[in-house]
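Reminder to self: tokens first, then the designed residues, so the page reads top to bottom the way the pipeline ran.
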């Protein structure tokens, strides 16, 4: 190759890099399907493995009316979850999953914190109220969404690339699907629960 061709090639490559948006990102939109509509909400749709992205360092799990709120909380591993108590009664929070933790009993307006050390599902329970249950889904990256009542979801600001999209659901399963995220615009997927 002549030197001039090499130079031209290098110049072209530099021009292409310069023309690319600094933060090219697409999105993933879609919905779950299921035999019964009652299963469509509160599923977590997430990319199994992706480049690290910006994620909040903290998240909150409330307890109000003897219910954990939200029912399912997806976070990135390493996130510190602040557990609140907005009831007049004391609550306990413990998880038999992952490295296991027990935050003891705490009362109204107190906050207990726990930093999630591993990826995976942490079931949250309260020793004082057996009906209380919620889930923290500790993930590798911040590209996740919780499905709405109709099963729809949207994951924004995803770096372009090919990924595997997986679903966590309290009672149902879904086969992971491949998805190609464009540099801009949305990839659309439909995932069946079974
Ligand atoms: Cu409780």
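Designed residues (194 positions):
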């Amino acid at each position: 190759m002549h030197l001039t061709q090499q130079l031209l090639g290098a110049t072209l490559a530099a021009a292409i890099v310069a023309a690319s948006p600094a933060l090219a990102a697409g999105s993933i939109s879609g919905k779950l399907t299921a035999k019964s509509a009652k299963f469509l909400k509160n599923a977590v749709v997430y990319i199994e493995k992706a480049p690290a992205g910006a994620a909040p360092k903290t998240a909150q799990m409330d307890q109000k009316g003897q219910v954990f709120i939200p029912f399912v909380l997806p976070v990135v591993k390493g996130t510190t979850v602040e557990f609140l108590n907005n009831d007049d009664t004391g609550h306990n929070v413990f998880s038999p999953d992952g490295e296991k933790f027990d935050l003891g009993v705490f009362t109204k307006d107190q906050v207990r914190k726990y930093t999630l050390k591993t990826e995976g599902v942490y079931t949250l329970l309260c020793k004082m109220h057996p009906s209380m249950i919620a889930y923290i889904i500790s993930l590798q990256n911040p590209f996740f969404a919780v499905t709405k009542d109709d099963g729809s979801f949207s994951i924004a600001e995803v770096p372009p690339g090919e990924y595997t999209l997986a679903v966590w659901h309290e009672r149902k399963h879904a086969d992971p699907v491949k998805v190609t995220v464009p540099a801009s615009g949305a990839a659309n997927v439909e995932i069946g629960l079974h």
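Residues 66, 91, 126, 128-129, 132 surround copper (II) ion (CB under 6 Å).
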